[in-house]
Amino acid sequence: MTPQSILKTQFGYDTFRTGQQEVIDAVLDHQPTLAIMPTGGGKSLCYQIPALIVPGVTLVVSPLISLMKDQVDALNENGIPATFINSSLSYQEINERFDQAATQQVKLLYVSPERLDSGYFARLAELPIDLVAIDEAHCISQWGHDFRPSYLNLATTIQQLPSNPTIIALTATATPRVAADIMQRLGIDKKVETGFSRPNLAFKVVKDQDEDRFLIDYLQANPDQSGIVYASTRKEVERLTKLLERKKVAVTMYHGGLDKAERRQNQEDFLYDRTPVMVATNAFGMGIDKSNVRFVIHAQVPGSLEAYYQEAGRAGRDGLPSEAILLFKLADVQIQHFLIEQSERDEASKQQEYEKLQAMSQYANTQECLQRYILAYFGEEGEDCGQCSNCLDDRESQDITIETQKVLSCVKRMDERFGKGFVAQVLAGSHNQRVKQFHFDTLSTFGLMKGRAQKSITELIDFLTASGYLAADGGQYPILKITALGVKVLTGKEQVFRKVAVKASKALPQNDELFEALRALRREFAEKQGVPPFVIFSDKTLRDMCVVMPKTLNDMLDVKGIGQSKLERYGEAFLAVLQENAKQAE
Length: 586
Known about the structure:
There is one protein chain. The chain is an alpha/beta fold. It has 4 domains: 3-193, Rossmann fold, CATH 3.40.50; 201-392, Rossmann fold; 398-498, Arc Repressor Mutant, subunit A (Orthogonal Bundle), CATH 1.10.10; 513-585, HRDC domain (DNA polymerase, domain 1). The chain has 27 helices and 17 strands. It has a 7-stranded parallel sheet, sandwiched between helices. The protein has a 6-stranded parallel sheet with strand order 8-13-12-9-11-10, sandwiched between helices. The chain has a two-stranded antiparallel sheet with strand order 14-17. Its cofactor is Zn(2+); Mg(2+).
């Protein structure tokens, strides 16, 4: 068997995506490898295909139970023997699955990092493990946005395996610093990075609007689309869920305060397309391999761009057009400040989190291409995407050079020792005690923007920081400093332009009748077999059926995502729907 033949016969694809072939070749050549690919970029195939070629077992370290189950279900649907071991199983079931791996009745064995630290290591050491795949590898780095202590011991544990397996680490979100940390900890010297761009994902920032009204209008305009709405707190999740229920939106919710049975039921309702919209905290999502999520809306600001990009990336995993929308308001930034301050992190870690939050706030205030801004954050150059809210904002820019000079001059006269809130107070002409204490009421810049709301001035400062005229230096209480670009503005060598608030998003395209008929058939199979619909076929595969319009079972193999196993299981039923549609069109 070759990687190319497995790609076609088992997974139903003719060509590899960018980077997949390189990673697979490196793994088969026993090179420890780090693969950094965007969500939906096909990371799983980078170890699933080698798993079918190497003689022994592939051990997959995965962080969440739900992710294991979904991936194992998908592999089994493709005729690939796989199983998992986690806390949901009885002692007898665990032993039975170890026995299956020992006799190579399964080729892939999924475990959590905690299982490697437990008494299971002795059983693992008995297995013929040739390859270890570490999913969500950013969890191993203290600089990552989702650091997990249980990942720290992975390198030591793997080194103790007598079979001396090859390591492949995979992640969608790793800054250069995080990538270097992963490689150092795991002893990896090869990195394959395919880029962070998601061409099918339209990023949008919505500001200065009634967020509840926007959310209601958007969901009512997209009643049949599956999506996730993220909020920062359990209280806000419950409030939004009740609000949407009153507006007759089919919605469910997920947060850590719900009991285990309710969380599982709500998650399954979402996965099985019984309830299209999930309102959740960030406790939901890392383990959700649902390919047909058409939108992700952040109703509150997340704590970092890494977290935002990973959560937003859960939209459009199948490659079809999708949206990632951030509803931004300054009050949400304060919520994140509170969450950082109340955390049990040490002071150095807190300072790091504050810096990440600053970058998140700057993303919401930049007027450059949003996708290009994200790429730059991850150390990658990119071109304007042409579809984000900033790229599509065709209104004329306003010359705000004089306003900018007022702000920069005030920062300068305050000796670049204070934050944006205090600068805004001075510019607004506030007579509070602190302003008087520092005698800033005597500055020539005091009250230069009198009559303008402090919130408006603060937003202007955020824009100037995001645009590179100011720099925020520090952690919880960052101080403003003028950059080299800002100096050019102060000296009259550079002009500054700004557009007004961006437009609200339009609804996603509606589905056609044939696609809906295929979805209905997919749902029937999914319910009979007790698996999520996307495990049967992704939305992208159903869309491709509508384009290819196969006339025979053999033609069905030309549809992306249909391999021999799925053709045998579902080919005739889906072909019948396609043929009926063709007759009606004649």
